[in-house]
Amino acid sequence: MMIEVPTAVIDAISEGERFVILGHRDPDGDSLGSMLAISAFLREQFRKESFMPGPLDWPEKFFFLEKHLNGAGKPFDDNIDTLLILDCSAENRIDWANVEPNSFPEARRIVIDHHREGEPFGDVNWIDPRASATGEMIFNILEALGAQFTSDIAESIYSAILTDTGRFTYSNTTAKSLEICAKLVQAGNLDLADITSQVYYNFSEEYLRNIGIALYNTRVYRDSKILLLTLDKASVKSFSTTFDDTEGIIDFAMSVRGVEVAALFKEISRNVIRVSLRSRGKFDVGAIAVEMGGGGHHNAAGCTMEMPLSLARDVILRRFEDLFAGSSSLGERH
Ligand code: 5GP
Ligand code: MN
Asked: Is 295's C-beta closer than 6 angstroms to any atom of ligand 1?
């Protein structure tokens, strides 16, 4: 049950002195929480220096975590020996924020992630798809290093696991995730109602309008087994919203009775479509995302398609239909 942290990871972290912590673009609760937790530990309990240059586009609902930066947001020079890259398994998804990627050619790269796509690109890699969140892996590392789970660290890791498990509802939620969170709640004396309202009951007016656009534009196939939601550029413009605040909109589609697969299309520009894919149970949308140059998990993935909106929708609908065709005999067996 206990996840063993590879010795190479423990050694590499112990050997580092000056760290830069990086996550992925479009930061989410898991990347931010994981980055903040390990940064706080390195600075406050492990006598290291750590810096978090990004992300620049910190979502508003995670502003409450910013207080845990605790000095790590300060400017730093190029004298860095270790890059810790969290929750980001594709090199081209690293959020370099205002740092030049080539600034630290000598620095050792440690990659810690629970996504499965891509070739590991670090000098030391720990990729464990069994972990519900990178935050869970950070908990294991900190525990192995004898950390004290202060309220700063506990709130950061709890937020990481809370959000990556969809408030402990997705199929990646395990007894282990709950056990870790129970320890964090106790050690950090966390105010769960406050964290929940910061993250989930914090809609902006713009977000509300985006929900409206996406739901109004929903297309339904196969008796609601397939749902396609769209935020098209024209509607986003006419309702004066942006594409910044759309996380979770696809969950409305996954709340429909009988739905098996869903996609949200965001028409960023005429030939750039950001796609979020979700499925329930056996259907693997991660494989579809990988095929389109993106990635993610079995039940939650994403990609960017460089083609017009109507074509992107056709391509994904066809892939979704293929899933049903491929499993017609399996589906009847139960
Ligand atoms: P979302 O739909 O919430 O943006 O992403 C769902 C999952 O797919 C996340 O775990 C995210 O890391 C992954 N993902 C989304 N878009 C991309 C992408 O363009 N490339 C890769 N490699 N992974 C993605
Ligand atoms: Mn994650």
From this structure: yes
Question: Given 3.90.1640.10, 3.40.1190.10, 3.90.226.10, 3.40.390.10, which CATH number is that of 7-200?
Answer: 3.90.1640.10
Closest atom of ligand 1 relative to the 26 alpha carbon: 4
Q: Which residues are within 5 Å of ligand 2 (an ion), measured at CB?
A: 30, 87, 134, 164
Whole-model pTM: value is 0.83
CA distance 170 to 198: 20
Domain ranges across the chain: 7-200, 205-331
**What pLDDT sits at residue 83?**
97
DSSP 224: T
Give the domain 205-331 fold. Diaminopimelate Epimerase; Chain A, domain 1 (3.10.310)
99 contacts 36 by C-beta, under 8 angstroms: no
Neighbours of 296 (CB within 10 A): 22
Instruction: Report the nearest-CA residue for atom 21 of ligand 1.
Output: 295
Measured from the Cβ of residue 144, the count of other Cβ atoms closer than 10 Å reads: 15
**Cα gap 267→263, rounded to integer Å:** 13
- The series of mean pLDDT values per 10 residues for the chain, 334 residues long, is 87 98 94 98 97 84 92 87 95 89 93 86 95 98 98 98 94 95 98 96 92 97 98 94 88 96 97 97 95 92 97 98 74 32
Question: Where does residue 321 rank: exposed (0-12), middle (13-18), buried (19+ CB within 10 A)?
Answer: middle
Mutate to test the pocket of ligand 1, among 57, 297, 299, 306 (most ligand atoms within 8 A of CB): 297
Distance 294 CA to ligand 1 centre (A): 7
Q: How far is the CA of 300 from the centre of ligand 1 (A)?
A: 7
What 3-state class would DSSP assign to 86?
strand
How many Å lie between the centroid of ligand 2 and the Cα of residue 22?
A: 13
Query: What pLDDT shows up at residue 57?
Result: 80
CA distance 294 to 273: 12
Give me the pLDDT at residue 2, please.
63
